[in-house]
Amino acid sequence: MIKHSFQTMPVEQQRPRAARSRFGVRMYDPRKVKKFKQTIAYEARLTYKDKPLSGALDVSIDFYRPNQKQVSKRELARRNAKLSLPVVKPDLDNYIKSFLDALTDIYWVDDNEICHLDVWKFYSSTPRIEITVKSLEEKRNDN
């Protein structure tokens, strides 16, 4: 089992950019997304030294995005208690895409091995991403 908390603000996957060259068109990630993926991959490599997991995986992710600056104390308390959820952009699936791509070849061989995904998006005064990865075989043995 892998359990880790990345102390960085979640970044959504944006549309790839295209650039022309003599050799054709080259697709690339925007700078913000590329930097996010590199940061996540670097931190994951520092904390996880084993081989990537393979086989059917169960992944749980909690994305904690920052509170807006103009929020009442009452609303802030509701958000910190997870009673008020962020139903605003960016979409959850865009957060998932950039994060899972960053962890490929570190936590798992390929993200196509993820058979169960449990993901939440919350507000927090400390933006971060928390992940738990289990092999489904390991999860079955726990029950």
UniProtKB/TrEMBL annotation:
Pfam families: RusA. GO terms for molecular function: magnesium ion binding. GO terms for biological process: DNA recombination; DNA repair. It comes from the Bacteria. InterPro entries: Endonuclease_RusA-like (IPR008822), RusA-like_sf (IPR036614). This is Prophage P1 protein 24, holliday junction resolvase.
